[in-house]
Amino acid sequence: TNTQTLFREEKQKKSKRGCKCNSMASQTISAFLSRALFSSTRSLSHGRTSHLRRAVCRYSTAAAVEEPITPPVKVKYTQLLINGQFVDSASGKKFKTLDPRTGNVIAEVAEGDTEDINRAVAAAREAFDEGPWPKMTAYERSRILLKFADLLEQHTDEIAALETWDNGKPYEQAAKIELPMCVRIMRYYAGWADKIHGMTMPADGPHHVQTLHEPIGVAGQIIPWNFPLLMFVWKVGPALACGNSIVMKTAEQTPLTALYAAKLLHEAGLPDGVLNVVSGYGPTAGAALASHMDVDKLAFTGSTVTGKMVLEMAARSNLKPVTLELGGKSPFIVCKDADIDKAVELAHFALFFNQGQCCCAGSRTYVHESVYDEFVEKAKARAVQRVVGDPFRKDIEQGPQIDSEQFEKVMTYIRSGIESGAKLETGGEKFGPQGFYIQPTVFSNVNEDMLIAQDEIFAAGVFTQDIDTANALARALRVGTVWVNCFDIFDAAIPFGGYKMSGQGREKGIYSLMNYLQVKAWCQSVNTKSMTCCNT
User: Fold this and answer.
1) What is this structure's pTM?
2) Which sequence positions are flagged as catalytic?
3) For 173, phi and psi rounded to 5 degrees?
4) What distance in Å separates the CA atoms of residue 486 and residue 352, rounded to the nearest whole number?
5) 145 has pLDDT over 50
6) d(Cα 159, Cα 151) in Å, to the nearest integer?
7) Exposure winner among 106, 226, 336, 423, fewest CB in 10 A?
């Protein structure tokens, strides 16, 4: 959940690891809201005050009460994509995808079920076993992925508008941050396609030994609703670069952009059956995919609770390998030598980006006692200045939560904070007359045993000017990513994943390729009698 906690300890308590950041944990502050856009963070890091902070005073509801802007895009694709064709679900069922700004229906989308998963897997199996995709040269695959990246770039405005409409994230975030990231990811994996190869190694005897890196086969992929298009490319990029075929189950809350992007992939030259997209619900379509006997590998992004069920279904069926990218309760550590103004803005961004709906949100902020009070006051002030409203409007930082379920989940945590004795500093209520908006909310005096301060760990951020402190913390923290004096840096080459119950395996970078490859050892006897040595 989008919950931030700040901790401090008494000065005399020593850190077990001897770092200078050794006074943490007793008073806390929790915040529920969405995080700042990159533009605000950059302007502050360059020594300037954000124009948003000058222009807005105490989250005015003016933007929320205005009539919602009509999205500048039409919904084109609402059917399932199976074997290169858009088709209705076998049952004929449809479900409604909603506008988070109002709760109104955007479109009715085909609802896939077990039979549709079976059709999609059969198409993917035929495409892998008999089709041209795994057999074509790696260079040819690379060219198709590059063409797809070009098409994404050409359709940025339309796709970003569709993403904002279906998800509620600010349009400027979708168009200026996430779509360029998607394009970069696809070009990155297009570059890898013809650079995947095995090795040769010496053997103790007359044998020639080499390894082959082969595509794993049919990959099942289940993506979440918080970053629909970004998770689409994180999944399909490495899988396609390695020569696999795919069946993807999208989140029922946000099915639209994956269908649009899949259509562009086919326009780029992807053969029929290589990518199949099924919209539907987790207990039906998702469960059918996770337990399917003809799926060779599964990748899932979502909650830890669901991840456990997916892992169990994969094991009980054909023991298919599974990569999991799950939730987290990530710490942001502010040491005594940190630039407080920059740290406040970065901590605000670390949690609240994308309405706080992010697996690696910096939702626990540990602050050195000597700067704790100053940090708390400035963190509260930054939350009060947050710009909330229709995500299609310019300079909006925070849109609505994804749906009524997520809205109620956040409100439940707010009520829990109040009932458990935390002090509500600001916010805590619904924002505006319609939609799933929540006021920027800040709690103080939060204890570690409170519900709003607990969960597993995914990533960590460290804010310090001391290189020794940074080194000590980076090595001591048992997390999948450590960001030092930055947060949410998602370069295509940087691996991403969590420790413990935040998942297994890595997304992005070279490490993700291994999720979609099998390693085959090839050992061949060599007739040493026939070998000659030529000397010159």
Assistant:
1) 0.87
2) 325, 359
3) -65, -45
4) 14
5) yes
6) 11
7) 423
